[in-house]
Amino acid sequence: MPDITIKKIFVCEFITAGGLNHADLSASLVHEGELMRDALLRDLSQLPYQINTTVDVRLIKPKNCHACIEIAHGDDVWQVWAQQISQVDAVWLIAPETDGLLRKLTELAVLQGKLVLGCGLASIEMFSHKLATYHALTTARITTIVTYTVKNRPNIDGWWVVKPNDGAGCSDTLYFEQTQALTNWLISNHKASTHLIQPYQEGIAASISCVMHQGHSQLLACNKQLINIENNVFCYAGSQINGMQHYWDAFESLAQKIAECDIGLNGYIGIDVIINSDDEVVVVEINPRLTTSYVGLAQATGQNPAALIINTLTQSNFKWPILQRHIVNIHV
Questions:
Q1: Cα–chain-centroid distance for residue 164?
Q2: SS3 content of the chain, % helix, strand, coil (to 5)
Q3: Are 175 and 160 contacting, i.e. CB atoms less than 8 angstroms apart?
Q4: pTM for this predicted structure
Q5: Is there a contact between 144 and 284 (Cβ–Cβ < 8 Å)?
Q6: Beta-carbon contacts of residue 22 (< 8 Å; ≥ 6 apart)
Q7: CA distances from 95 to 37, 39, 267 (A)
Q8: Residue-by-residue pLDDT tens, the chain, 332 positions
Q9: How far, in Å, CA of 161 to CA of 168, rounded?
Q10: 247, 275 in Cβ contact below 8 A?
Q11: Are 43 and 85 in contact (CB under 8 A)?
Q12: 8 Å CB contact between 93 and 40
């Protein structure tokens, strides 16, 4: 593969870049979006690229970019993004999988023949749907949590988790300790048909930050997830980067096994896992995009993670440096 030259990059973090310009802004979503966007812009500003982005007019303009267009309430943000993409060599996109948003944003770049510094359409489509993810992982004989649709769930007692098929993170993910409570929710909730059901998996919540390209994986960090259950709702509170580094070898092996599955994962990938009582690593889901853990990677690794990712995707003979494994706490 010949090396790829990049001069201009368009960075688009959906929430902060104007994706919700016709709706109210969620303070929590904005906060997480700004954390990821600002960390990425900071890292990219240290590299020899021109960086462009957009911002919702209700928010403060970000630093560390060369050009930033404000998106107002009446603007056609998708048209603006398409125009911005036409002016650059590559795009770095961060968006929720919900409602196909990450796929739609990626498609804007693919249709214009731009380099996507992330996953392609096929892998985004697969990992934007938890049922498809479950089937892909089980086919590859990767340990994951058994997943049921509303129609095929077993009628047995137990602790259960309900989540939207195309949700991102902990969004709309619920916990039930009684089967009858789950049944009552399914009967009364009009969104139930779009949700999936899994047995609750006890253990330590963790995540893997890695870079994948052409069937190979490089580990960036092994993280402990800070997840609480409040009023039967899962809430993400942040992560401890490299808080699970004693599982480095197991996480590295798992990430490589996933990369070898020929499912098109590319660029930064976040893998959510649970360490169960048997010390087994169980995959919960795969995020085909930047995750909040990216925010602490520069400090944790002693390297510029954006440079590592871009060089992996554009240089055929790029050699990874030795990474530091500092512990960094991220709170949201």
A1: 16
A2: 35, 30, 35
A3: yes
A4: 0.95
A5: yes
A6: 73
A7: 11, 15, 15
A8: 578 899 999 999 999 999 999 999 999 999 999 999 999 999 999 999 999 999 999 999 999 999 999 999 999 999 999 999 999 999 999 999 988 999 999 999 999 999 999 999 999 999 999 999 999 999 999 999 999 998 888 878 889 999 988 866 667 888 998 888 888 888 888 777 788 999 999 999 999 999 999 999 999 999 999 988 888 888 889 999 999 999 999 999 999 999 998 788 999 999 999 999 999 999 999 999 999 999 999 999 999 999 999 999 999 999 999 999 999 999 98
A9: 15
A10: yes
A11: no
A12: no
**Separation CA 158–CA 80 (nearest Å):** 49
Six-digit token string for 40: 């990425």
How big is the chain, counted in residues? Answer: 332
**Is residue 306 within 8 Å of residue 47, measured between CB atoms?**
yes
Under 8 Å between Cβ of 145 and 130: no
* Residue in the block written with tokens 């409602």: 99
For the range 125-128, what are the long-range contacts, defined as Cβ-Cβ under 8 Å and sequence gap of 24 or more? Answer: 126/263, 126/264, 127/97, 127/265, 127/285, 127/286, 127/287, 127/288, 128/97, 128/100, 128/102, 128/103, 128/166, 128/288
Exposure string for 191-220, b = 16+ CB within 10 A, e = fewer: eeeebbbbbebeebbbbbbbbbbeeebbbb
Could you tell me the two tokens for 288?
Answer: 């085909």
Q: Greatest CA separation found in the chain?
A: 59
Residue type, 119: C
